[in-house]
């Protein structure tokens, strides 16, 4: 099998991780890197002498089979369309696009040209999230009541995206992936403290048609670094704590039971405090799993775990949340 020639557009703070990880893939090679910044190109050239380094996207496209787009958010849709036009499968970093219009344009082009597109929803490749999805979809938690996520830390303060667009794609993509549905109503409150019109903190609420309620707290202005998701089901509850080095998932056999014969009496509710189970989660780096999957997507042997339509779905939620933010938190339909 020929080695797949992968290219990376944008090798900055995050894109450099793509560059390093692609270079380490078993059946693909880092064929080219494109970045507008001469200092970045110099660094990449030094670290990866066998890769072609360029400032020209067309030059990169002529040398690769598939592309990772890891440039700033505002460039994602234009660059994805360029890749699709050239017939090159692409992984588009989050946020997939900055408007529903742009995201839909990418999805339409991908469908028309039959070019596979992977939305860079990294957490779908986290082994704890894969396990969590199996628990939710397999029914082990019982009916899902609600979930809430916490994604807060101090820095990196961005000027081109607010906390919603910077962090939100992670939690929104995970919520949609776990539940297998998109929200019917979204509301968001937020405040800009450090820069005008760039919210540093956003509280996002999503209501799903199934009755599930989800809440996400996003901030880069917080004393703690927290990456936590709690899912409360009728039978069991689960906490995914990504700051834990090893015990990332805890499954609580806890709940409130209602014996059938006392259906209408609140006093008959009994609290169940069962065991706590900590499953062994394989130690897989999500980025390596995502890029390994992307290489198989590009070869046509696997369908994208999150395709362009999934990218659009997440952007729709972020767009609805933005409209809600502008009205001071009124509920909005995505
Ligand atoms: N999946 C994740 O967990 C994760 C984490 C961090 C960042 N990101 C995303 O990755 C993207 C990049 O973030 P970053 O922190 O690396 O930003 P960055 O500003 O540090 O790097 C962006 C790089 O892209 C280059 N660039 C800009 N426009 C370009 C163009 N048109 N063509 C080629 N190169 C161009 C810049 O010179 C820079 O080197 C953002 O969309 C961000 O949201 C994802």
Looking at this protein, list some descriptive labels:
binds nicotinamide-adenine-dinucleotide; alpha/beta; 334 residues; Dihydrodipicolinate Reductase, domain 2; eight-stranded mixed β-sheet; 14 strands
Note down, in words, how this protein is organized.
The protein is α/β, with parallel strands linked by helices and 334 residues long. It folds into 2 domains: 4-121 and 287-306, Rossmann fold, CATH 3.40.50; 124-284 and 317-326, 2-Layer Sandwich (Dihydrodipicolinate Reductase, domain 2), CATH 3.30.360.10. 33% of the residues lie in helices and 29% in strands. It is built from 9 helices and 14 strands. It has helices spanning 15-23, 38-47, 57-61, 76-85, 100-113, 127-137, 163-179, 286-299, 308-326, and strands at 4-9, 28-34, 52-54, 66-69, 90-93, 117-120, 144-154, 183-191, 201-208, 213-219, 221-233, 237-241, 249-257, 270-277. The strands form 2 sheets. Strands 8-9-10-7-11-12-13-14 form an 8-stranded mixed β-sheet. Strands 3-2-1-4-5-6 form a 6-stranded parallel β-sheet, with helices on both faces. Helix 1 (15-23) links the parallel strand 1 (4-9) and strand 2 (28-34). Helix 5 (100-113) runs antiparallel to helix 9 (308-326) and helix 7 (163-179) packs across helix 9. The N and C termini lie far apart (44 Å). The model has no long low-confidence stretch (mean pLDDT 96).
């Amino acid at each position: 099998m020929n080695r797949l020639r992968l290219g990376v557009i944008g090798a900055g703070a995050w894109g450099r991780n793509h560059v390093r990880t692609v270079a380490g893939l078993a059946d693909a090679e880092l064929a080219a890197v494109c970045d507008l910044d001469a200092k970045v190109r110099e660094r990449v050239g030094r670290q990866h002498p066998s890769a072609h380094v360029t400032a020209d996207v067309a030059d990169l496209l002529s040398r690769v089979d598939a592309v990772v787009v890891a440039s700033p958010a505002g460039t994602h849709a234009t660059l994805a369309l360029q890749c699709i036009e050239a017939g090159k499968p692409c992984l588009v970093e989050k946020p997939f696009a900055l408007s529903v219009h742009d995201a839909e344009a990418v999805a339409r082009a991908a469908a028309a040209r039959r070019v596979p597109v992977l939305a860079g929803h990294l957490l779908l490749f986290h082994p704890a999230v894969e396990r969590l999805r199996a628990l939710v979809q397999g029914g082990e938690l019982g009916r899902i009541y609600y979930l809430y996520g916490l994604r807060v830390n101090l820095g990196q303060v961005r000027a081109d995206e607010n906390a919603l667009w910077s962090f939100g794609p992670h939690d929104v993509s995970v919520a949609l992936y776990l539940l297998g549905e998109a929200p019917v109503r979204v509301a968001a409150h937020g405040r800009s403290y450090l820069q005008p019109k760039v919210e540093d903190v956003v509280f996002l609420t999503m209501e799903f048609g199934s009755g599930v309620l989800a809440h996400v707290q996003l901030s880069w202005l917080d004393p703690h670094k927290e990456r936590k998701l709690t899912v409360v089901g009728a039978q069991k509850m689960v906490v995914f704590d990504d700051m834990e080095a090893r015990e990332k998932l805890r499954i609580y056999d806890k709940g409130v039971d209602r014996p059938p014969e006392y259906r209408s009496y609140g006093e008959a509710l009994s609290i169940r405090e069962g065991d706590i189970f900590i499953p062994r989660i394989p130690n897989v780096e999500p980025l390596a799993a995502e890029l390994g999957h992307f290489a198989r997507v590009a070869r046509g042997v696997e369908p994208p775990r999150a395709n362009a339509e999934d990218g659009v779905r997440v952007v729709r939620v972020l767009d609805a949340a933005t409209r809600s933010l502008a009205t001071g938190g009124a509920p909005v339909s995505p």
